[in-house]
Structure formats: C-alpha cells, structure tokens
Amino acid sequence: MPFTINNADSANNADNTDGAINNADNADNADNTAASAHGKYDSLLLRLASLKGAVLAFSGGVDSSFLLLAACDSGIDPLAVTARHPAVADFEIDMAKKVASELGARHVIIDLPVMDNVDFISNSPDRCFHCKRALIRSLSGLAARDGFTCVIDGTNADDPSDYRPGLKANDDSGIISPLREAGLTKDDIRRLSFEKGLTTWNFPSAPCLATRLPYGEPITVEALKMVDKAESILRNMGFTVLRVRKEKDTARIELPAVDIERAAGVALRGDITAMFREIGFLYVSLDLEGFQSGKMNRAIKGEQGN
C-alpha cells in the first residue's frame, strides 16, 4: 500500500476484535516493508560507494533528492547537475537549489538547448528519449571533463512499468540508475525520505512542461510559458497536485477529485478563468475525471473509455 503517516483505521477499529487483528497484520506488514526498505538502502550505499565519484542528474524531485542524500551518505562527494530549459518550471529550479543547499552538496545548473532539437519540439511520442539523450550527453561531457567516473540518475524500480521512452536513452548510454538497481520503489523512497527528514518526501511528481501538450502539437517556448504561468496561478491558490493541459487554445485543468468542487465554486471559478484568459487561453475547462499522471499517454496506448 502507498506510504502514509497516519492510520485512521487503527483508531476507528480500536474496540473491534476483527479490526484489532487486521491492524496487527497491518503493523506487521508495515514493519516488514520498512525493514525491506532499510535493507535496500544499505545496498544502495554500498553500490554508490563503489562508484568513487559521480555526476548526478538532479531535478530536485523526490527520487533525485533522495539519491543525492544517499550519495552524500556514501561518502562519494557527488556533483549534482540540474538542467535548465523552457520545459522546466521556474519553481523546480528554485527547489533544486534549495534541496542541494540543505544537503550541503555541490550543485551546478546547466542550460540545455532542447528547443534547438527538432526531434524534441516536434513532440512525437518518443520526445522524452531525445531530451534525455541530450541531457546524458551533456552530463557525460561534464563528467569526463571534471574527472568523474560515471553519471547516475534517479530512475526507480517502479519506472519501467510506465511508458517512459527516456529509459531507452539510459540503456543506450550506460547511465547508472542506483535506485533501480537496489530495487527501491517510489513508496520505499518516500518512506526513507520521510525518516531522514527530506522535505521532498511528499512532493507530487512533476514531469516536464512538455508533457502538458498532446503528442503532435509542436512544443514552443510560448506554449510552455503559458502552461507554467497557469500552473503557478493554481499553486498560489493552494492547489498542490495539478496539471494544466494545453490543447491548442484550451486549458484543461486536472485536479484530484477532492479539489474539483473548490475550483468550480463561485469563489475561484471566475478568477481562474479571468487569469487564464490573460495568459492567452481562449477557453478554460475543468477535467471532471480528475488528476491522473500520464493521461496524455492514452493517445498512444489506444485506451478507450469504460
């Protein structure tokens, strides 16, 4: 089950025999899960220590922040490198700086010219492969220049189960993914991040802004800026898990089911519409199905409604 901090069911079932048995089972399972995660972390530290030194692809998200902490714990003194380009939201760059500073890690930001890459801006289903390949080439060049032995990234054990063409770039280049090698799942990483005091432990996933455009719709700097501004508006209103999908002139807002009613209420609906229109959207819609990461991939998976 997904990692959570509180178990409300335990309190509700405290006076119920069956509930007490179930809660005991849950506690045993939680203990086993935690022990497994700790064992994987020990394996991760050994693997990292064997690398001697590494350039770490660092976005400042859940996985790469945890990997940076582990790399520092292992004693290899990594260099965290964050790529900046129009498809990366401004707040993510700021967060990467903050996390690296909190961990006392060396950190540099490089500009990645992905908008000059025709294969990327054409926005085909393998878009992420071309971006990741360009990133790996830049990081590999930096590693060779500065005497690092390898490049590592935060791919975890769950990632291969989703459509992620960027993983092919990893496989083709020989980049090392220590979290994946150690069998660390996203749940493991959140659990251990919480235990170790990482502020990123409960961050929502934040794929690049290009994922907000349907495949085949060209990626432009203007389109990416519109999405970034729109999502910033919603975050400033207190929404945390969100996507703004740009489909030509329409903004389609995805929020968790619990937030849909609030966004559609009288207090916010008019403000959201007006501010999105100021950005350049002609139409503003709210996706009644709610938030779902990777929803744009339905177009290539051939999914139909139930």
Can you walk me through this structure?
- With 306 residues, the chain is of the alpha/beta class.
- It folds into two domains: 154 residues, HUPs (Rossmann fold), CATH 3.40.50.620; 91 residues.
- Helices cover 50% and strands 10% of the residues.
- It contains 13 helices and seven strands.
- A four-stranded parallel sheet has the order 3-2-1-4. The chain has a three-stranded mixed sheet with strand order 5-6-7, covered by helices on one side.
- Helix 10 packs antiparallel against helix 12.
- The longest helix has 33 residues.
- It starts with 7 loop residues before the first helix and ends in a 5-residue tail after the last helix.
Coarse structural class: alpha/beta
Low-confidence stretches: 6-21
In DSSP terms (H or I, runs of 4 or more residues), the helix count works out at 13
The helix content is: 40-55%
Q: Count the strands? A: 7
> What characterizes the major β-sheet?
4 strands, parallel
What is the element string, with H for helices and E for strands? Answer: HHEHEHEHHEHHHHEEHHEH
What is the class of the largest domain in the CATH system? Alpha Beta
CATH topology of the largest domain: Rossmann fold
Which strand-content bin applies to the residues? 5-15%
Output the strand order for the largest sheet. Answer: 3-2-1-4
The Cα radius of gyration reads 21 Å
Q: Please, what is the CATH homologous superfamily of the largest domain?
A: HUPs
Principal-axes geometry comes out as globular
How far the N terminus sits from the C terminus, by CA atoms, comes to 25 Å
Overall pLDDT: 88
Number of domains: 2
If classified by CATH, what would the architecture of the largest domain be?
Answer: 3-Layer(aba) Sandwich
